[in-house]
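Re: weekly structure request thread

Next one in the queue (103 aa):
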Amino acid sequence: MLHGKQLQDAKNGCADSVTLNSGKMEDMQELIGKKITGLRPITPQEREKLGWDPSSHSATAVLEIEGDILIFPSADDEGNDAGTLFGQDPKGDFYVWTQVPIK
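Done, posted below.
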C-alpha cells in the first residue's frame, strides 16, 4: 500500500518510482474499520510509477481509503501489470468492474 508522502508523490507525478513492499495478509489489519472515501480510475502517472504501461486503457480501479491509503488490483502478485476488480453482490451474483466512475 502507498502511504503519506509516497502516496502524494504518486498522485502528483513527483516521485521517480514507487517502492513495492511485500507483506502478509496480517499486515492489512490496519484496514479493518477504515472507510472507503473514493473510487476512481488509476491515473497514467500512477501506472507509470508502478512500471505499468501508462497508455493502457484498462479499467483499473483505485480504492481510496481514509488515512491516505490507496488499494488497486494487480494482474499478479509480482505487480507486473494492472488488474481488474471482481465482486459479488448479496444475492451471490458475480461482477467485473469494466468501467470505473470518474470523480
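The longest helix spans residues 4-12. The mean pLDDT is 75.
Next request, please.
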